[in-house]
Amino acid sequence: MEQLIPSLEVFLVGLAPAFRQEVHALFSQMVGAWIVCLGRRTISRVWETTGQAEQRNHAAAFRLFSQAVWNWDEVCRLLFIHSVAALVPGTRVWLVVDDTLCHKRGAKVAFGGIFLDAVLSSKRHKIFRFANNWVLLGVVVELSCRPNRYFCLPILWRVYEKQGSKSKKEHRTKSQLAAEMIAVVAGWFPELHFLVVADSAYIGKHLLRQRPANVDALGPICWKAALYQAVTEPVRGRRHGERLPTPAALLADDQQWPAQTMTIPFKSGCQRVLEVKVIPGVSWYTVVGSAAVQVVLVRDPKGEWRNEALVCTDVTLTAEEVITGYCRRWSVEVAFCDAKQLLGFHDAQVWCAASVQRAAPMAWFVGSLIVCWYAQAGQDGEQAQRQRPWYKKKETPTFADMLAACRVQLWSHWLNAESDSAADHAEKLSWLLEYVATST
């Protein structure tokens, strides 16, 4: 299957400056094949999907990841330009950062290590896996075709490596890798204001204190954090004001710090009555330094939701914007699930450093590409739905629906090419039947 539909080819043509001409052509073929591939997305299976396995040696596909000269940062910068212009209104851009594992086998796999698998683990039972540990930065977008949820588009990623024999200065922690990626994106678009949402593993000094001027952060704060009153003009010997109670004590003290009852509307369409305390003008000195932040404490009077303590470096945001903004973080978990279950994030069997850094993230890139394509062109074309009449309350479109629509439009365009003779059409159909029959 070699032909791309014009609406998808527009996106890939825009990435041409990041490649040499022949590398770009091969990359485009592999992207199209990655989308329609059936079975495990190993490099050889994706190459087989291009339909060139009989005419051309499969080593070209492996060299695309191991030897060709290109890098994901430049490719994703070009895609990000396209996605921001089309999907993000205004100058405020929401980003989300998190990490996940890509399961691997083999002692020689570059950057491999034994890591805690948070997905398989529980509070009582911890599961460790040999894997590559990836830190991802994504942009959170809203789509008019699915207004009741957020979508995360992965745009940058770094593979984390354990310290091993490296010195402390040479080693990069996951929070440092996240801060470096945020600085890269902020440098791409200095005129935009970025709001980064992260969990407690990343809300620390690397992200908060060393962030660029056009970046703010939002996420959980430790319940025992040492808080102080902020001062307008910090000087030597007076970097902060008087000590404040911890977030846990602030939430418990309703006399000195009364809560405000608020009805918060969420993206899913539901509303929730919550008790909210906003503590402005706070200095979290050990992490942020002297700069003022706001702390938002949230309590569910029904006791169904856990209490939350959130810190935000953008003091202009309202309490509702902070609470609903933090909910955007969940979109990255959905993106991880989609990449692993639908796009073969674990499947590429590579081991050298260059291939490891390029092969697995192809699933993230293809996922971002499909969402951008569907939002701008794909939703107007042919759709594909599984026949499940017992599933009566399914929200559409999901990412699986977008992927299915892209597949059916690619297959239809390839099979119904006007230049094909009857013999060519029969040959294509024969190849397709054999391909489907051999998928696992």
Describe this structure in words.
- Strands 1, 2, 3, 4, 5, 6, 7, 8, 9, 10, 11 and 12 form a twelve-stranded mixed sheet that branches.
- The mean pLDDT is 93.
- This protein has helices at 6-13, 21-36, 43-49, 59-66, 72-87, 174-188, 205-208, 247-252, 319-327, 330-342, 353-359, 362-376, 399-415, 422-437; strands at 92-103, 113-116, 128-143, 146-160, 193-197, 215-220, 227-229, 243-244, 260-265, 271-283, 293-299, 308-312.
- The chain has 440 residues and is α+β, with helices and mostly antiparallel strands.
- It contains 14 helices and twelve strands.
- The chain starts with 5 loop residues before the first helix and ends with a helix.
- The longest helix has 17 residues, at 399-415.
- Helix 2 (21-36) packs across helix 3.
- Helix content is 36%, strand content 21%.
Descriptive key words:
440 residues; alpha+beta; 12 strands
Give the oligomeric state: single chain
Rg: 24 Å
Helix content: 25-40%
Distance between the termini: 18 Å
Order of helices and strands: HHHHHEEEEHEHEEEHEEEEHHHHHH
Give the structural class: alpha+beta
Strand content: 15-25%
Shape: globular
Poorly predicted parts:
none
pLDDT averaged residue by residue: 93
How many strands, what sense, and barrel or not for the largest sheet?
A: 12 strands, mixed
- Count the strands? 12
Question: If helices are DSSP runs of H or I spanning 4 or more residues, what is the number of helices?
Answer: 14
